[in-house]
Design brief:
Elements lengths: L1 E3 L1 H9 L3 H7 L3 E3 L1 H9 L7 H6 L3 E3 L5 H7 L5 H13 L2 E3 L3 H9 L3 E3 L15
Parallel strand pairs: 1-2, 1-4, 2-3, 4-5
Amino acid sequence: MVIADSSPLISAARAAKLGLVRRMYPALVIPPSVYVKIVAKGHGKPGAAEVANATWIKVKNPEDKAAVLELEERFGSGESEAIVLAQELGGVLLADEGSVLEEAKRRGLRITSTLLLDSCWPYRFMS
């Protein structure tokens, strides 16, 4: 299971590669803050309509609100929720920001990023 932060989805949408993300991750989970950032706040921008209508992307709330609040002292709400959700679900975190990836690694999460991609796909996981 892959849990995504907003930055890889926004980047893929801007590059008209969201379909490629779907092929790589046929089932993707995002937290509510990521959905809001991409769909509601990003209305009319690349990816907003695609994410809103994507049957392969599911929105799930993290259960540990205290952990999210703690992370929000250093990260945005979407990043914080994605890290906690990845921990709770035992999934792989898809994120692009170095500090988020470092925090996820520190917590023992498996991570992947569009920044780790070679010139050709598929992706590879960092552990």
